[in-house]
């Protein structure tokens, strides 16, 4: 459907990717991953035809269409939400206009022959309209909008009434309604809540075309992706499977690469020992030159730098009372819309609560009430003994001082902390070198979010209330946040659509539905299981088209890890690896023995240069005989070393052939 051939792109002296080849076919779900700034959006721009590559071409099948969702929405014309979505399907609109024109002509035509021709054309246009989904297009548009979290009352609202996040959802709805053959999606989950995410997963599972998608939501990528295209330093890696499969394969590949690098280093040391040993012997000159040329041709295996987890410590929060925040009989309304009436809820010390529920259920309102950031109409909010709360909302990025550097922001939050600990903390949040000295004004949204999170965790509070803390964060930053929250000793209550974070942090789930909280003790998978039992239906993430339920991931992983019979090639590879290990061990033993004998013979040679060191002629003759024996053993060891080295090279060649085949 879409093919990229020999694609390269660089900015100044920085190469994003080079000679990249891949294709998207019907049914593909490609996760495009890489660090921030690695070139993911640039590649999508190239595939969409909006940015030219430095080399290579992008081609598509005849009449195949592509739809591109950018991180910034295209302008809307000011129509209502539903009309904006309906207008996105230009094919239906064009056919509808042609039908209207033909019917207008037919109404005034009196020639029977021309009437028959017009009727035939109308019949053909009706078939085209039906094929394009014309009759059902309003129903489909409403279904997509509902799945993305819009309410029926929103359909008639003007686009100018919606905020940025909802406009992005409308842009996604507009794209899905167009139903192109290929979807190019740049961070579509950024503005989706948990419920909309689940619906979107099921939609993509049933989408007949190809998809290439970037996302920082690890659980989403695991559910959706069938292939991974990873932009890594110096290379682009293709892998079949989901995101976790890719991580497992990358770890295995790194282990293989490390073993190959170690083996290469051993072999080069052996070759250099041979060269140094026989460099000045005429009988070995040809072999020495041959080995030197081979060493010059060796392409040294370079290992990628492993990301090191920087150790840092947050201030230990003061111990609070057992009841952290209590809401009793709380009511809250917005005009005629009553969100809560008579709400009773208690957060206890040690709770790590994830608030879940459909869009508009009142999760953010409840979090603001818990934080004391929103006045209540009735009831009481009470904090427990020695409770100190910190509230992280979306606007906290705007509270950063643009003129401050990241380390100055942390110093304001924790003036008693040493500069080294603040530097370590920023290092743990992926700031290195001079990054900590850049003004906040030049940082990206993700970098600002990391500064705000580090600043929040440096404050000596014992209750964190967080509204979508993973927005703007890539997968690596989200993992760091999960590590930090895992180390945090206080009480946590958060809203997030990142299921991976919920699984790693939460020990209690509170579901908000109809203004009433339902408390589910235990982790997120336990919550899904209990919801399944209560509803006596398939899990919430299951679908009739074969997508796997969210709470079956562990089962799938267990099944994948079960042993299966080894193939003939795997048995042969295992035997060769075992033989290679034995040879390598023996070659290392020989190398040590040669070194020991060379050292001893050098000592004797030094003594022979000063014969007065010997007591008598007999001692001199005995030392001479010992020297000859050592040199004979040394030669025998070198002969064995050379023979075994050739055997090791042959085994490496066979292993390379098996892996290539």
The major β-sheet equals:
6 strands, mixed
The coarse silhouette is extended
Our measurement of the CA-to-CA distance between the termini, rounded to an integer number of angstroms, reads: 28 Å
The fraction of residues in strands falls at 15-25%
- The low-confidence parts are 305-311, 537-563
Helix coverage percent of residues?
Answer: 40-55%
Number of helices: 20
The rounded Rg comes to 34 Å
The averaged pLDDT comes out at: 80
The helix/strand class is alpha/beta
Strands of the biggest beta sheet: in what spatial order? 5-6-7-3-8-9
Task: Give a count of the beta strands, DSSP E runs of length 2 or more.
Answer: 18
Could you list some keywords that capture this structure?
six-stranded mixed sheet; 18 strands; 48% helix
3D architecture notes:
By secondary structure, the chain is of the alpha/beta class. The chain is built from 20 helices and 18 strands. It is extended and about 125 Å long.
């Amino acid at each position: 459907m879409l093919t990229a051939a020999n694609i390269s792109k660089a900015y100044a002296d920085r190469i994003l990717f080079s000679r990249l080849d891949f294709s998207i076919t019907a049914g593909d779900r490609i996760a495009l991953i890489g660090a921030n700034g690695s070139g993911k959006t640039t590649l999508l721009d190239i595939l969409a035809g909006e940015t030219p590559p430095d080399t290579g071409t992008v081609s598509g099948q005849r009449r195949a269409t592509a739809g591109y969702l950018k991180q910034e929405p295209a302008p809307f014309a000011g129509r209502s939400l539903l009309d904006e979505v309906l207008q996105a399907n230009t094919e239906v609109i064009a056919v509808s206009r042609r039908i209207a024109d033909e019917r207008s002509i037919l109404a005034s035509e009196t020639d029977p022959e021309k009437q028959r021709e017009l009727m035939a054309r109308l019949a053909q246009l009706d078939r085209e309209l039906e094929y394009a989904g014309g009759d059902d297009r309003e129903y489909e548009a409403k279904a997509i909008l509902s799945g993305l979290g819009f309410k029926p009352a929103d359909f008639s609202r003007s686009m100018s009434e919606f905020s940025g996040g909802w406009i992005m959802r409308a842009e996604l709805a507009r794209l899905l309604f167009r139903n192109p053959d290929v979807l190019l999606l740049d961070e579509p989950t950024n503005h989706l809540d948990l419920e909309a995410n689940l619906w979107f997963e099921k939609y993509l599972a049933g989408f007949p075309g190809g998809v290439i998608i970037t996302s920082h939501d690890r659980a989403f990528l695991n559910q959706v992706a069938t292939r991974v295209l990873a932009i890594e330093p110096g290379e682009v890696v293709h892998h079949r499977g989901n995101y976790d499969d890719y991580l497992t394969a990358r770890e295995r590949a790194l282990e293989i690469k490390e073993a190959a690098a170690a083996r290469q280093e051993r072999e080069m040391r052996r070759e250099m020992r041979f060269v140094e040993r026989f460099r000045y012997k005429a009988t070995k000159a040809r072999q020495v030159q041959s080995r030197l040329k081979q060493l010059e041709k060796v392409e040294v295996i370079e290992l990628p730098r492993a990301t090191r987890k920087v150790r840092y410590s947050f201030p230990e929060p003061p111990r609070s009372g057992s009841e952290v925040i209590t809401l009793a009989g709380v009511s809250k309304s917005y005009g005629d819309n009553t969100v809560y009436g008579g709400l009773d809820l208690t957060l206890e010390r040690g709770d790590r609560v994830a608030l879940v529920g459909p869009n508009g259920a009142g999760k953010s309102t409840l979090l603001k009430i818990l934080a004391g950031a929103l006045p209540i109409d009735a009831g009481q909010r009470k904090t427990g003994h020695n409770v100190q709360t910190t509230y992280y909302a979306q606007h906290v990025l705007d509270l950063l001082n643009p003129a401050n550097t990241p380390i100055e922001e942390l110093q304001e939050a924790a003036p008693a902390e040493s500069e080294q600990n603040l530097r370590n903390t920023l290092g743990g949040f992926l700031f290195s070198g001079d990054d900590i000295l850049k003004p906040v004004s030049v940082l990206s949204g993700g970098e600002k979010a990391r500064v705000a999170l580090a600043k929040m965790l440096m404050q000596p509070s014992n209750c964190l209330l967080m509204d979508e803390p993973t927005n703007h964060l890539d997968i690596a930053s989200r993992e760091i946040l999960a590590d930090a929250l895992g180390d945090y000793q206080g009480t946590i209550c958060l809203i997030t659509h990142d299921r991976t974070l919920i699984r790693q942090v939460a020990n209690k789930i509170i579901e908000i539905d109809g203004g009433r909280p339902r408390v589910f003790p235990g982790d997120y998978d336990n919550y899904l299981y209990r919801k399944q039992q209560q509803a006596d239906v398939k899990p919430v993430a299951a679908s009739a088209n074969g997508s796997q339920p969210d709470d079956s991931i562990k089962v799938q992983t267990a099944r994948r890890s079960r042993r299966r019979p080894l193939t003939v090639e795997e048995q042969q590879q295992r035997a060769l690896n075992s033989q290679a290990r034995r040879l390598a061990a023996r070659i290392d033993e020989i190398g040590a023995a040669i070194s020991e004998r060379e050292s001893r013979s050098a000592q004797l040679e030094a003594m022979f240069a000063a014969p007065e060191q010997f007591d008598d002629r007999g001692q001199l003759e005995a030392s001479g005989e010992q020297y000859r024996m050592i040199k004979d053993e040394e030669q025998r060891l070198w002969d064995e070393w050379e023979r075994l080295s050739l055997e090791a090279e042959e085994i490496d060649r066979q292993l390379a052939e098996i892996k290539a085949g």
